[in-house]
TrEMBL record:
<dbReference type="InterPro" id="IPR027417">
    <property type="entry name" value="P-loop_NTPase"/>
</dbReference>
<dbReference type="GO" id="GO:0005524">
    <property type="term" value="F:ATP binding"/>
</dbReference>
<protein>
    <recommendedName>
        <fullName>UPF0273 protein NEQ174</fullName>
    </recommendedName>
</protein>
<feature type="domain" description="KaiC">
    <location>
        <begin position="4"/>
        <end position="254"/>
    </location>
</feature>
<keyword id="KW-0547">Nucleotide-binding</keyword>
<dbReference type="InterPro" id="IPR014774">
    <property type="entry name" value="KaiC-like_dom"/>
</dbReference>
<dbReference type="InterPro" id="IPR022475">
    <property type="entry name" value="UPF0273_KaiC-like"/>
</dbReference>
<keyword id="KW-0067">ATP-binding</keyword>
<dbReference type="Pfam" id="PF06745">
    <property type="entry name" value="ATPase"/>
</dbReference>
<feature type="binding site">
    <location>
        <begin position="31"/>
        <end position="38"/>
    </location>
    <ligand>
        <name>ATP</name>
    </ligand>
</feature>
<dbReference type="InterPro" id="IPR010624">
    <property type="entry name" value="KaiC_dom"/>
</dbReference>
<comment type="similarity">
    <text>Belongs to the UPF0273 family.</text>
</comment>
Length: 256
């Protein structure tokens, strides 16, 4: 039987994934600052909404109002879908502080406490089920790194706890993982093993120009492309180029 897949909807990406992400996979979207992790996550969620697939988005690094504004800049206004009960924005940023936070439907009272975050996620899933008759298909946490910045030793446990909830409800998720500019890993000890998939995004200076590229490091349940491909961020979102390959320039030391 063919496996069920969730299309990312990001032009070029599903080709690299042999058709899409296997359903229920939790995929780490790992990369340095400004590499495009949030934009790619928002594009993933919005593609689903447009195709009748409910979604949840947990924002831990940005105000939910700023996330909606950023999405609108790309033409991805989530508000009508929130009104229909198809999309839940989970505010893990404000802790309920501020006027705008009072208007949010799902607010995590203590964003540093993973259990309180999980409770609100479950509430949002039930709300979507009540409104649409099905659980969300897609989910995003932006970023999971925030949850263990000060306690890296529990990183893997936290990712496992969240993965159990998301994949338990059949949700296919992007967990955004922040890595520092020169870091080769995927952000946090052991998280790379807990995740079902890893997509690594990079921004490199080549010949005085910043070049965006990505590579699918792993994806359980499917074969996938193994090469590094360039991508661009445009006014309409991310476009990946499956026919182009980026070969990293090596740093050559010249002795005088
Ligand atoms: N309309 C646009 N057209 C082209 N590029 C854009 C546009 N809007 C934003 N960008 C690029 O996207 C980058 C931000 O992307 P994004 O917020 O997804 O990064 P991120 O990987 O989530 O970063 P961080 O970890 O710092 O939050 C900007 O630095 C800019 O280079």
């Amino acid at each position: 039987m063919a496996i069920q897949r969730v299309k990312t909807g990001i032009p070029g990406m599903d080709e690299l994934l042999n058709g899409g992400i296997p359903k229920r996979n939790v995929v780490l979207l790992a990369g340095g600052p400004g590499t495009g992790k949030s934009i790619m996550s928002q594009q993933y969620i919005y593609y689903g909404l447009q195709n009748g697939e409910p979604g949840i988005y947990v924002t831990l690094e940005e105000h939910p109002v700023a996330v909606r504004e950023n999405m609108k800049n790309f033409g991805w206004d989530p508000t009508p879908y929130e009104e229909k009960g198809m999309f839940a924005m989970i505010d893990g940023f404000t802790g309920g502080i501020g006027r705008a936070a009072e208007r949010e439907r799902f607010v995590v009272p203590d964003p540093t406490d993973v259990r309180s975050l999980i409770d609100v996620v479950k509430e949002a899933i039930s709300w979507i089920e009540e409104n649409t008759g099905k659980p969300p298909v897609r989910g995003v946490i932006d970023s999971v790194t925030t949850l263990y910045l000060t306690k890296p030793s529990v990183a893997r446990n936290i990712v496992m706890m969240l993965k159990k909830v998301f994949s338990g409800f059949g949700i296919t998720a992007f967990f955004v993982s922040q890595v520092s500019v020169a870091e080769r890993g995927f952000g946090g000890p052991g998280v790379e093993h807990a995740a079902d998939g890893i997509i690594r995004l990079d921004l490199d200076e080549i010949d005085g120009e910043l070049v965006r590229s990505l590579i699918i490091w792993k994806m359980r349940g499917t074969k996938h492309d193994m090469r590094r491909h360039p991508f661009e961020i445009t006014d309409k979102g991310v476009i990946v180029y499956p026919d182009k390959v980026v070969k990293r320039r090596k740093l050559v030391l010249v002795r005088s």
